[in-house]
Every structure is written in C-alpha cells, then in structure tokens.
Amino acid sequence: MSKQKIKIDIVSDINCPWCYIGEQRLHKAIAAAEDKYEFEISFKPFELNSSIPQEGVDRLEYFKNSYGPSIINQLDAINQRLSDAGAEENILFNFDNLTRVNNTFNGHRLIWLAGTYGVQEKVANALFYSYFTDAKNMNDTALLTEIGIANGIPAEKLEGFFEGNEGASEVRELEQWAHAAGITGVPAFVINEKYLVSGAQPAETFLNVFSEVAPQAPKFEEVTSQGNSCGIEGDC
C-alpha cells in the first residue's frame, strides 16, 4: 500500500535559533512517522531583519536597538533557555562566540539554489550549524560557497553565483508569499498547503498534525497553539 504524501514548507531564517530547534524537532517527528507517510520538505526564506547591512552588525547593539537596552540583562537567561532546548535536540549553541548578526539574504539564495539539486535540508542544517555552533559569518560568500559544495551543489554552479543575481528575485517572491500568508514569526511550518504550525513545537505536536491531515481543511488553518519563535517585532 502506498504511503500518504505530506508536503511541508519550512519558513525560517538562518539567524533564528528557534528555527534550528524547530527543524530538528520536525526531523525527529518525520523519523518516527516515515513508515506511514512519504514526506516532501522544502525551505522558504524569511528575513527577520532585511535591513542588516552586508557587513553585519554587533550582536549586542542589534539587540539593544531592536528590543531596548533592558534586553542586555536578559540575554544570559535567554541564551541559557535556548541552549537547554538545543541540547535536547543535539544542538550546541555557542552564544559566547556569536559577536555579529549577519545579513542572511545570500544564505537564502544558497538554500534556494540547493532546492534545485535536492539538498536543501542538508544545506540549511549546515548553515545553522556554521552560524550557531561555529559562529561563522553567514554572509561570507566564500564560506557559503564551501558549504554549498560540501553539501551537494556542483562547484561549477557556484562559480560567480553570489556575484550575480540568480535566485534573488525568487527569494524575494517567496518572502512575499510568506508575508501574504500572514506569517510574522518563524519558524512556521505549512503542511500540505493547508495547515499552519507556528513556532518550534515538540515532535509530538507534529505527529498529531500528521494524523489529522485532511484535504478539505481550509487553507492555513492553525492547528496548534503558538510555540517558541522569532518575530520581526519580538525577541527570541
């Protein structure tokens, strides 16, 4: 008997720690249900702050400017909460080494390109790891090129890729799609183009949603309460 197909669009940003955690929780749910369902995964771009300059910004200044000076006194507690949640998903967050917040548009272009070679998930996870564990610059195009090649994108395809405009309009269109769908924070998971799961939900939540997938459900029906997420107007 053929498996029921479930399509999942993951809307996320490379700068978002809850996106990393949420994607890993989703992966755990998929591993537990792959005997019942056939999954098709794609990543959709969402820039939490598209105005970040190409050279990036100091992380502490970014938080102060975005959320007010009082946020600095809360950062240790926020980082610890994220580190604890990440450890449960085998994620190592090295927040002490993260000194910059990077512009992620080129990273999203790379993820878009990875989709044409069927390696989006590998590339996205490599970018998350490179930023949150290795504290690398996610707008370093040489590094992005290395990550792309190491994870299945042909080297010749990446020659001059970031110097050109390929993928730029496609990423912008996908970002507009997310905003038009009413998505204001990430991670967000659109399942079978009908269900919207918001935030880094536990694996059990995804498993429940998989079992409830129904063709007649209205578009973007929200089937869960809000999980942890990063939003344009709020902190992580």
Automatic annotation (TrEMBL):
Residues 8-208 form the DSBA-like thioredoxin domain. It comes from the Bacteria. Signal peptide: none annotated. This is DsbA family oxidoreductase. It comes from Pontibacter rugosus.
